[in-house]
Write a structure and sequence with these properties.
This protein is of the alpha/beta class and about 475 residues long. It is built from 21 helices and 15 strands. The chain has three domains: about 70 residues, no CATH class; about 130 residues, Aspartate Aminotransferase, domain 1 (Alpha-Beta Complex), CATH 3.90.1150.110; about 250 residues, Type I PLP-dependent aspartate aminotransferase-like (Major domain) (Aspartate Aminotransferase, domain 2). The protein is about 40% helix and about 20% strand. Strand 14 and strand 15 form a beta hairpin. Helix 8 crosses helix 13 and helix 16 crosses helix 17. The longest helix is centred in the N-terminal third of the chain and has 19 residues. The relative contact order is 0.13.
Amino acid sequence: MAPEILRNIPSVNELLESQPLKTLTTQVTRSVVVTRIRDFLDNLREEAKQTTSDLPLPSELAERIASWIVTSEQSPLRPVINATGILLHTGLGRAPMATEAITEMHALASGYCSLEIDLETGERSQRHVAVGQLLQELTGAEAALVVNNNAGATLLTLAALASGKEVIVSRGELVEIGGSYRLPDVMATSGASLREVGTTNKTRLPDYADAIGESTAALLKVHTSNYAIVGFTEQTKVTDLVRLAAKHRCLVIDDIGSGALIDYSRFGLNGEPVARASIQAGADVVLFSGDKLLGGPQCGIIVGRRSIVETIKKHPLSRALRVDKLTLGALAATLKLYRDPELAEESVPLLSLLSTSLENLHLRANNMAAQLEALDSVTSAEVVEDETFLGGGSLPTQRVSTWCVSLQPKGRKVDDLARSLRTGNPAIFGRVQQDRLLLDLRTVFPTQDVQIIQGVESLTAPETESECNQA
């Protein structure tokens, strides 16, 4: 493009006077709009050097810039409607929090709070007091500590209790979870030495006993939450490890992973360890997550014998991994709900979704399908019975029964429909299965049913059949 044409690119001030960008300065700051216009024009000049195409009219250019600014200013972190059926969907933030937890976070975030002050004495206190008593009450442990996540809890515990010493682990429990978290790597980082025993599918008590030596600090039990070894298998119980450890004066650390405070068999999900049961079995330290089966904020929870937990608290990493007032407030509010199991089932979203009856889901699916099928953008909306998973690395082989609405779009591909719903407002995530989009109501709150219908209804007019075939 000739230099004289480059000179025809409107100035920043000229563009600022256009209606689309003038309006935008009231929605975001003027300085942001100015910076974005300059960035856009810099890119336009570079593109203009490589093409002979005419410049767009100033009015069209202003529209383009305004649209680009609106898109670029949208946060990638947005609320979504989870219609995938995966209850603990890591990509969608795992467990939603209870209203009580959200209310508590708002109250603490909007001003100052007694994070590390004892209001009775006016003296300095510890932030863990906010949840310590609740965790002791609900798990039966003598003491508790909360850190940023369960990986942090594992790293801190091993560093505080076993740095420079050996920790014995079953070969079948050397887990790797999402994000390339590998237990052997965490153990090496902590300064502890790994001593693996047994085989992949069988580890007996004598395997641990034969491995214990003068440098043994602990026996580590790890719940293999995201995979299952089936068939010819054998595991050693925590109670047996506790008796063995007592003879040799070493510790038992039980990493139960997902953090169940109640027995999930009431929802038809079996085999998930409960924190209180591990404490009752005699484990010195129990580690688990706060944002999975517990249904609270992301954090790692350490409970156990008081002297052991105090040792962990004093380690330098404890401060590096500590949580803020919002996490503590949300966790405390969630834990209070568990004092009454019926209240927890009603108020903790994960438990509420799990306990929703199939009859209820079926009725809602029928109502939704009837309204969706009446829309111009939908060829068919059928009610289908299906199965889904808990997710979040928990109970990968156990299925949860559900009802879905299966959508067949009109004039567009299923993947295009899924993308349009994901990028809409609100963002709606379903799952594509057998060239249909399934909206799984197991993870949809009843108040969101009408939002899904409105989201599908708001889609732009579909392509014609010939356009779709050309695509």
